[in-house]
Amino acid sequence: MKKFDEIAAKRRAGERLSSSDALFLYEAGDFFALGKLAAEINQKINGDVVYYNINRHINPTNICVNQCRFCAYSKLKGEEGAYEECIDDILEQVKEAETLGIREFHIVGGLHPDWPFAHYLELLRALKREHPAIVIKAFTAVEIDYFAKISGLDIPTVLKQLQDAGLQAMPGGGAEIFAPAVRELICPEKISGARWLEIMALAHRAAIPTNATMLYGHIESFADRVDHMEKLRALQDQTGGFQVFIPLAFHATNTDIRKKGETSAIDDLKTLAIARLYLDNFQHIKAYWVMLGEKIAQLALLFGVNDLDGTVVKERITHAAGARSAVGLSEAYIRNSIIRAGRQPQERDTFYQPVGGRDE
Ligand code: V47
Ligand code: SF4
């Protein structure tokens, strides 16, 4: 384990890990030693605190002009199961938001062939009008690129109009895996990895904090994952605009990617731990319980993770692909899960500021 000890010493000394270090941790590192090191580094950065938020997912439509091979959620217009929700439907669904303590709307959806950009602006304005205190985290870089195409506007103008309508942060979806050869096979119509990064850089320049994701466990190699994280780390060095890294565990049911089973618990936990060690300029690493399952997400708290996402409510994207986790969790469940892992639950807002004032 000489090589592992060298990597651990490097990381403890605050030195940056190389891509070959990260690959070694994937291929040859000792699982428990890796988890322990990631937990130790996280402890230095974030102490015992584990964040969660009280949020609500809004997915206005699953009709999408793209046909990503890994996506079980999207439908073509007119296909069975296709849906579109008008703004009034959405307002009706979230009318109790304040009573439920919701602090964030997380809005993502398909690339609808007919809706104009003005429709999305109106949705944000309507939500802000009815719920001024709830933060709007909306639209992936893929959607932003699509809005620019359908409106004929450039990206900075699209972002500015969205901000004026109420957008305050962006989620990290659409990143998938940046490596062009893999991307060509799993989502050929989707914007390139380079374009995703370019749009995120423009969002950061416009003072919009964003998240970053990586879809893993399909046909990519460990080297592709490390390459993906390397590109995120490089952009973060330049902008500092990423709030959190969220690895997304691939679910194969109802998708065009023929693969049996799910990612293994070992792979999930290793990926989170390596992210904690390699992404030295990301303060937060999130275990997205929807994709990991509630129990692996809890275990992840011992592998360098300091965020469990939120209550979510009505998750649709992963459940279309066979997820067996709940479609939403109560705050009490999340807090209890964190306490039982020996950590301190802390409700946060979208920007990782503590809120709620209910420390144990
Ligand atoms: O971009 C699609 C992924 C993403 C599948 O920023 C799948 O806080 C697994 O990005 N199996 C959307 N994953 C979800 C997302 C997200 C979720 C929660 C929090 C945040 C955040 C972002 O879901 C897509 C894609 O990468 N996805 N299909 C599937 N079959
Ligand atoms: Fe459309 Fe997004 Fe699904 Fe791709 S992942 S098909 S862009 S909804």
What does this molecule look like?
The structure is a single chain. The protein is an alpha/beta fold and 360 residues long. The chain has 15 helices and 10 strands. The strands form 3 sheets. It has a 4-stranded parallel sheet with strand order 2-3-4-5. A 3-stranded parallel sheet has the order 9-1-10, covered by helices on one side. Helix 11 links the parallel strand 7 and strand 8. The mean pLDDT is 95. It binds ligand V47 and iron/sulfur cluster. Ligand V47 binds next to strand 6, strand 7 and helix 14.
Over all CA atoms, what is the radius of gyration? 20 Å
Report the uncertain regions: none
β-strand amount: 5-15%
CATH topology: TIM Barrel
Order of helices and strands: HHHEEHEHEHHEHHEHEHEHHEHHE
User: How would a crystallographer describe the biggest sheet?
Assistant: 4 strands, parallel
Strand order of the largest sheet: 2-3-4-5
Give the names of the bound compounds: ligand V47, iron/sulfur cluster
**Gap between N and C termini:** 39 Å
Please work out how many helical segments DSSP would assign.
Answer: 15
CATH architecture: Alpha-Beta Barrel
Relevant CATH superfamily? Aldolase class I
Shape: globular
Give the class from helix and strand content and strand pairing: alpha/beta
